[in-house]
Specification:
alpha/beta, 5 strands, Rossmann fold, about 190 residues, about 55% helix
């Protein structure tokens, strides 16, 4: 089967252009998103769950289906595992052709490169921060606030809400300190 997928873009709220082109391409079924959201795409999920070996997925442009290079790579790899061809009409990409396969190998390499650059930049930034004495994460709460919160908890006279309001220590942080204290007591 030939499946089409469309979703609106900020400048193209009307799906008319995309739908018109996909219908001319001979799609058996077109999955239409109602919003341009990157996170909530129920029609994409429905389409992906419908795919079988030998099917084709057709989109107007690459950004119709993916918001990032990594997302595009993951989608196409999943389709390739299911033996499904992917076609982007305006980008002239067709994974059933040798040219399309080479294009996606190149996209995968670019995606890997982007990941490596980001990873190395992050590591370098963390190393530089450590050299400057910065440790990252949230600053620790003052010891007197922690002791006070623990004492209030131990007294059993205060609710968790009262303790957090009085000391500025969150419920999660309080429980973490209590857990640490129990481990120390057992040692």
């Amino acid at each position: 089967m030939i499946f089409g997928y469309v979703r609106p873009f900020s400048q193209d709220k009307d799906l008319y252009l995309q739908l018109n082109i996909l219908e001319k391409y001979g799609c058996d079924k077109i999955f239409k998103e109602q919003t341009s959201s990157a996170k909530n795409r129920p029609e994409l999920e429905r389409m992906l769950n419908t795919l079988n070996s030998g099917d084709q997925v057709i989109v107007y442009k690459l950004y119709s289906i993916a918001d990032t290079t990594r997302h595009l790579i993951d989608l196409v790899q999943m389709m390739q595992q299911k033996n499904v061809d992917f076609i982007s009409i305006m980008d002239q990409v067709d994974t059933s052709t040798e040219k399309g396969k080479i294009f996606f190998k190149l996209i995968e390499k670019v995606g890997d490169f982007q990941h490596d650059v980001l990873s190395e930049s992050t590591k370098a930034g963390i190393s530089e921060a450590k050299l400057k004495g910065k440790t990252g994460g949230r600053p620790r709460k003052p010891d007197h606030n922690v002791r006070r919160a623990l004492d209030m908890y131990q007294s059993k006279k205060y609710s968790i809400a009262q303790i957090t309001a009085e000391t500025g220590i969150s419920k999660t942080t309080l429980y973490r300190y209590l857990e640490d204290r129990m481990v120390d007591d057992k040692s």
